[in-house]
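Case study B.
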Amino acid sequence: MPVLLELEDVSARYGPIRALHGVSLSLEEGSTLALLGANGAGKTTTLRAVSNLVRKTGEVTFSGRRISHRSPEGIARLGISHVPQGRGILAELTVEENLRLGAYTRRDRASIRSDLEGVYDHFPRLRERLRQPAGTLSGGEQQMLALGRALLQRPRLLMLDEPSLGLAPLLVREIFGVLARLNGEEGLAVLVVEQDAAVALRTCAFACVLEVGRVVLAGPSDELREHESVRQAYLGY
Amino acid sequence: MTVLLAAAWSEVAQQVVSGLATGSIYASLALGIVIIYRSTGVINFAQGEMATFSTFIAWWLIEDPNGPDWPYWAAFVVVLVISFAGGVLLERVLIRPVEQAPVLTIVMVTLGLAIALNGLIGWIWGAETRSFPGAFSTRPIHVGSVTFSIQDAGFIAVMLAAVLCLYLFFRFTKAGLGLRAAAAGGEASRLLGVRVGWMLALGWGIATMLGALSGMMTAPTAFLDPNMMQGVLLYAFAAAVLGGLDSPIGAVVGGLALGVLLNLLGTYVDFFGGQMRLVGGLLVILGVLLIRPQGLFGRVAVRRV
Amino acid sequence: MRLLTVRGEVLGKAAAAGAFVLAVALVPLALADYQAYEFALVGAYFVAVCGLNILTGYTGQISLGHGAFMALGGYTTAILATDHGIDPVWTIPIGGLVAGLAGFAFGIPALRLSGLYLALVTFGIAVAAPALARKLEGLTGGSTGKNVPLPKAHWGLRLSSNDWLYYQNWTVALVLLLAAWLLLRGRTGRAFRAVRDSEVAAVSFGVHLPTYKTLAFGVSAFYAGVAGSLFAITVAYVNPDSYPIKLSVYLVVGAVAAGLGSLWGLVFGAALIEYLPTKAADISSTAPDVIFGAVLIAVMLLLPSGAAGLLRRLWAFAARLYTRPRVQ
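Model:
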C-alpha cells in the first residue's frame, strides 16, 4: 500500500524545551499505527507536529503532499482528523452542534445525514443527548462524541491522542472495537497515541515506541509485543 | 388621590420607556463589546470611536452638502456594510499580531486605535458639532396614559430586530456555528477545519456593525462630534459588566436595565442628573465587579489567590 | 556576557545618574524661555510616569485612571492656593497626600480586580471624574475652574518665572526619583516584582498581597497627585477639561514607552507625553492624534519593552561586540 503519512526528521520545541529529536515514521494507507511511550516521551507532540500546532523542523508529508507549513485548519480539510488529548469537546455547544461541526467543511447534505445515522449506530447514547451541552456528558460519552465528530469529517487518517484516558476498561474496549471495525470495513487509517500499550498493540498492526523525544523501536505489533524491553516497560511482564 | 397616583405612574412609565430607548443604544454597543470579548478575549476600548467613525460616514452620505445626499435608509444599510468591512480589516491588521500578547499590550493597541480614530475624524470632517437626522420622528404617541415618542419605540424596535437577526445567525447558519466554536475553543475548532482567524474577524465585523447602529441612534439627540460616544462607551461597558462580559443576552438585558436605572436615577435623584449619570455608570461597574463579578448571566471565573 | 565587572557596572550607573542630575541642573542655561516652560511640564509628567511605573511596571496593575489622581492634586493646589492663600509650593506635598490617600483607598477594592477588569474600572474613573469636578461647583469652581497664582521665583532667587518653574518641578522630580529608587531596591521593590511576576508564588513566599498592592496604588497615586499639583502651578489654571481621559491614556503610553519595570527610560516617556502631541501637530496641524495613535500602535507592536528595553538591548549588544575572549 502507498504511504499515507510520513514524518521525516521532525524536531519540535515548546519555547526553549526540545520535545522531539529527529522523529521519523511512516504509515501506509489503510494501516494502523500505535505510538507508545511513557509520559513526556513526546507522543502528543508528534500528533501536534502533524497538525502543525507546534513549532517544528523537518518534513511532514500526507498523501504525497508536504503539509509541514499548512495551517492546522488546512491540514484538517485535507482529510486528517485529530482528536486531541482531552477530546477537544466544545463544552458550551450542544452534542448536536459538536457533531455538526464535524461536518463543517462538507457540503454533501445527503451523505452527511447518512453518516450521522452511522455515528448514532456506533454510539446510540449520543442520540439521547443531542440537545444537552456537551460539557455535561460523562468522560466516556465525550469520547464517543469526539470520535463521532471526527468520523463525520470523513477523514482518510484518524489520529487519536490517548482515547483511553479516564475511561473504564469496558468502554476502552468498545472504543478500540469501533476503531478496528472502521479500519477493517472502511479502510480508515488510524494513528493512536496510547498509554495502554496492551489494547493498542492488540488493535494496531504496527507500533512505534518513543522515549524522550526519539523513536527507539518500530515495527509490526506482533514483534514488538515479544520484545523484551516493551514487555517489561509497557506490558508489565 | 387616584388621579395623583395615576399621574405619578404614567410619569414613571414614561421614564421607563425612554430609559429603554437609551438602554437600547447601550445594549447595541455592549453587544458588540461582548462579542469581541467572547471571541478574541479583548476589551475593545476603541468601540466608541469606531461607532463615531461609522456615524460620520453616514453623515457624509446623508447630510453633507458636498456629499452624495442619499436617503436615510439607503445610507443606513451602506454604513452597516462598510462598518462590517472595517471591523474585519481592523481585526486582521491590528489585533491578529497581538492576539497572544500580554493584557497591557492589547489594551494599549485598542487605546491607540481610539486615539487615532478620534484624530482621524477631526482631520477628515473637522471637530465642529453638527446635527444628524433621526430615522424616526420625535412625535409623541399615547398608549393609555403613557406618552412617549415614536423615536423611543423605533430605537427599541431596531435593537430588538438586530438581536433577532444575530440570534438567527448564530443558531442557524454555518458561519454562526463556526464563530461560536471559535469562541468556545480555538484550537479544537481548527482541528475541525474551522478557519478560526477569519471567524474572529467576522466577530469584529459584526461588533463594528452594532457600534454603527448605536452611533446612528445616539447622534440625533446628542449631536454629532468626535467625542460623541465617549460617555456612551462607559455606559456600554457598565451594561456589559452588569450582564456578564461573556453573555450576549446579558449585554441586552444589562443595557436595557441600565438605561432605565440611569434614567430614573437622573430624574428623581437630583445629584445624578445630566453628566453625573457617568458616575452612576462607574458605580455600577465597580459594584458589579466587587459583588458579583460574573454579572447577571456570565460564567464564573475562578481567580482567588 | 558582562561588559564590565560588577563594580564597574555600579560605578557606571552612578556616573550616569550623576551626569543626569548635572544635565538637569545646567540645561536651562542653554534654553530659550518658552523651552524652559516646556521642560518644566516634562518634569511634571516625569513624576506622574514614575509613579505609574511603580504601579504597572513593578506590581503589574493596570490603571487607565491616573489622570484623575493628577486632577485631585491639581485641584487641591488650586483650592489651597487661591481660596486659602497658601503658597503654591507648600501645596505640592499636600496635593500628593490627598491623591495618595485616595489611591490607597481605591487600592482596597482594586484588590479584587485584575487585568482587564481593573483597566475597565480605572477607565470609568477617568471618564467620570471630570463630570464630578463639574458638579461640585462650590469646591471646584465647576466648569469655569480655578486660577492658580502665577509662579514667581522664591527665596530671593533671581530667575524668570519659567526658569523658576523648571527648577521647582525638576527638584521635586529628582527627589521623588531618588525616593522611588530607594523604595524599589529594597524589600518593598522585591515584593512588588514578586506580585507582578506571579501572585501565587508571591503568596507562597510570604508576601502579603493586600499590603503591597494597596501600597503600590497609594504611592503611585501620591506621585500622580504631586504631578497634578506641579501641572496646575505650571499652567496656573485648573478646570475639568484639564484632566480628560486622554491624559490618563497619555500617562500609560508614557510609562510603557519609558519601559515598565525600570527607571532608566522615564525621561523619554515624560518627554513623549509633552512633545509627541505638539510635534505631531507640526506634521499635521489638524490631526496630531492620528500620528500619536499610529505611533502608539507601532511602538506596542515593535518595541513593547519601551526605551528601557531598547537601552538594555543596546547594552547587551555592546557587551557582545567588545568582550574579548580570554587569552590562553
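The mean pLDDT of chain C is 83. The remaining cases will be described in the next quarterly update.
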